[in-house]
Automatic annotation (TrEMBL):
Protein name per its UniProtKB record: Metallophosphatase
MF terms in GO: hydrolase activity, acting on ester bonds
Keyword Amino-acid biosynthesis: no
Keywords of the record: Signal
Domain of life assignment: Bacteria
Organism: Sunxiuqinia dokdonensis
Length: 331
């Protein structure tokens, strides 16, 4: 190894350790906004040229939107070499100094790397906010991110990141996975902790991969019609363990954001919660006819409200929504 290469490697390792040693604080901007970009279903295969479209779109969206946080909502790397795929996907955030969170989809652990191994890999990366497995709770990637106020160190909003699992593990029941009861209880416990700590309910969003069964009901809400497209049936689990009901009971979650169904990108309204799809981010390594892009979400400090839109890689901005105003205008 020559001296220049040795120095470069040492510098990279040193900087990585410094970033990891620093506490990453998410905080509202001075204008009391906080911008999130959601990438979903990139289906990256690092050595497949068809993945270049996903990388190009992610880079373009990050440069256009300059978010405070990126959330990868599953099925991001779905081909070998897995580690290389994740390094390439997250490097887009790391080189721009953008923190990122990860939740897993049903395909992420199908190429010889388990959820446990993926968690270990990603938690070591600079700017990663993915947290280790919670003892006694199913899934990898159940954690809460706190967003600080622009004016103080107090929390002003919450982001729940959760593992919606992969496939049914119950004999006689086919289809996709669901939240286990211990995950529902974990969410309720975390919500209660935050309410007790702050003496009030903080506005929150939730990110996971597989849509809840209530997405089907929400899309059919004629009183508050959805905004966006639905070109395939919602591939929700056949078992409903009550995560949506828990969110209604806790009262903090304003919106849920998923992927999984590549040709759906709608936001629907049900009992005060926005049940939302991200925009398919992948290239031609999987199915999908929609131009690839990302969902953008902008929180507003002190308000149970947010703005959202779809941003394409070519710069186009689609489907702008003000939540909840755009769903309540007809009431």
């Amino acid at each position: 190894m020559n001296k220049r290469l040795s120095f470069t490697l040492l510098f990279f390792l040193t900087m990585t350790n410094l970033i990891q040693a620093q506490e990453i604080n998410l905080k509202f901007r001075a204008d009391q906004s906080f911008k999130i970009v959601q990438f979903t279903d990139a289906h990256i295969k690092a050595n497949d040229p068809a993945s270049k479209a996903a990388f190009a779109t992610m880079a373009a969206v990050l440069d256009l939107e300059q978010p405070d946080l990126v959330v990868y909502t599953g099925d991001i790397v779905t081909g070998k070499p897995v580690e290389k795929g994740w390094n390439l996907a997250t490097a887009l955030c790391i080189e721009r100094d953008i923190p990122f969170a990860v939740v897993f989809g049903n395909h992420d652990d199908e190429d010889g790397v388990s959820r446990a191994q993926l968690t270990e890999l990603i938690t070591r990366m600079p700017y990663s906010l993915l947290q280790p497995k919670v003892d006694g709770v199913n899934g990898y990637g159940n954690y809460v991110l706190e967003i600080k106020s622009a004016k103080s160190d107090g929390n002003a909003a919450l982001l729940y990141c959760m593992d919606s699992n992969a496939y049914s593990t119950m004999e006689g029941i086919e289809g996709y996975g669901w939240f286990h009861i211990d995950q529902v209880n974990w969410y309720l416990e975390q919500s209660q902790i935050q309410q007790q700590r702050h003496g009030k309910i903080l506005p929150a969003l939730a990110f996971f991969h597989i849509p809840l069964p209530e997405y089907r009901q929400a899309y059919g809400n004629e009183k508050n019609p959805p905004i966006g497209v639905r070109f395939e049936d919602e591939c929700a689990p056949e078992i409903n363990t009550g995560m949506y009901a828990a969110m209604l009971h806790a009262g903090d979650v304003m919106g849920t954001f998923v992927g999984h169904d590549h040709v759906n990108d709608y936001m629907a309204y049900l009992n005060g919660i926005a049940l939302t799809y991200g925009r398919f981010t992948g290239g031609k390594t999987t199915y999908g006819d929609l131009p690839n892009g990302a969902r953008v979400i902008v929180l507003k400090e002190g308000k149970r409200a947010f703005s959202s839109w779809i941003r394409l890689g070519n710069g186009d901005k689609l489907l702008p929504v003000e939540f909840p105003a755009d769903f309540l205008s007809e009431e």
